[in-house]
Amino acid sequence: MTTSSTHIAALLPATAKDLVLEKRQTPSPGAGEVLIRNHVIAINPVDWKRQTWGFRISAYPAVLGADVCGIVTDVGSSVTAFKPGDRVFSLAHSFCSGNNDHGAFQDYTVTNAAATGSLPKDISFQQGATLPTAVGTACMALFDVLDLPRPSIKKHASQVDSSSEPSPLSPTSILVWGGASSAGSMTIQIARLAGLTVFATASERHHAYLRSLGASVLVDYHSPTVVEDLIAAAERAGTQISHAVDTISAPQTLAPVVQILSRSTAANKKLAHTVGWPADLPKSDNIENQWVAADDLWERRQDLSVWLYNEAMPEWLEQGDIMPARYRVIDGGLSGLQGALDELKKGVSGEKLVVEV
Ligand SMILES: NC(=O)c1ccc[n+]([C@@H]2O[C@H](COP(=O)([O-])OP(=O)(O)OC[C@H]3O[C@@H](n4cnc5c(N)ncnc54)[C@H](OP(=O)(O)O)[C@@H]3O)[C@@H](O)[C@H]2O)c1
């Protein structure tokens, strides 16, 4: 597999400036790293936030971007799980390292082998690019912040014995607020694999799709009775919502989530939020709430990263247990990234924006 000595990157020259294309040296991977020739890159809200506010940028110019999918062209000395020619998806981490070699918005990216997954042959590069941040966020929410038990990798949905009674001590019902978001649709699917009953909110046009992914109850968050409707649905199902993931985490989403958990009689109520807690929103004493930090997958929770990307995701994708998000291609390759960032900043509904490079 040949690697070009230089490649094109989309660089952010300064806070709030547009991306510009420039040539960079193509790096070699370090010991536990892989070098990927990117074929498709996905855009995340954190990318436009970093561009707009200079958030988590240590020096300019900066290479943004977290989601890549392509072909391995080189591996570091300690990497045994991947070889040149492998089709992979990977979580890029310039966000954490501050190293532009680790940014997604370029032709070649160096990433951690521990945050890389083999892409089954039936999954396209476009689909693969939608995965890394979304599944990482879902897993950090479910298995780090909420500390729920992870599902067995081999025991996929069709083998789950639905007649078995859950342990009285294990939480079985979870609310996913913002089910149609990238993080939300992955949280629904992985929560289902973990054996939880999933209640979710989304615009009505996404209900059938999110049911097909494993949500048991869907309520439109635009409804003025959304809180009452979710509580009534839990009562009808004979369950209490004990855990919640708010993938949007705005004041208007966290307030109803707190209301629902407050009115639940479950013990040990927990809430994972993907954005910092709003300063003027009161917290509830009997709900444990914590911010999800997907970037902890690189160091503190590298064990979870290896389990998720190296082991679980390739199996789940192969078996059809996890469906990649719906996506829209923004034309123009690397030149299209700025338009994609602008588009995502305006807001999307139930789709991931990707560019092909
Ligand atoms: N802390 C972390 O580690 C971490 C990681 C990843 C993401 N995040 C953050 O999490 C947020 C979500 O990211 P994402 O990429 O998953 O978002 P996204 O896919 O861009 O979110 C779009 C979706 O948000 C839904 N939505 C908007 N307002 C809503 C509301 N009031 N109630 C329920 N759903 C609503 C829309 O649902 P409908 O289509 O149904 O209207 C839409 O489909 C972003 O702020 C991002 O920066 C944090």
Your description of this structure?
This protein is of the alpha/beta class and 357 residues long. Helix content is 29%, strand content 22%. The chain folds into 2 domains: 6-131 and 324-356, Medium-chain alcohol dehydrogenases, catalytic domain (Quinone Oxidoreductase, Chain A, domain 1), CATH 3.90.180; 135-295, Rossmann fold (3-Layer(aba) Sandwich). It is globular. The two termini are 18 Å apart. Residues 155-170 have low confidence and may be disordered. It binds NADP nicotinamide-adenine-dinucleotide phosphate. NADP nicotinamide-adenine-dinucleotide phosphate binds next to helix 1, helix 4, helix 5 and helix 8.
List keywords for this structure.
357 residues; alpha/beta; Quinone Oxidoreductase, Chain A, domain 1; Rossmann fold; 6-stranded parallel beta sheet; 10 helices; binds NADP nicotinamide-adenine-dinucleotide phosphate; oxidoreductase activity, acting on NAD(P)H; ER; oxidoreductase; GroES-like_sf; Enoyl reductase (ER) domain-containing protein
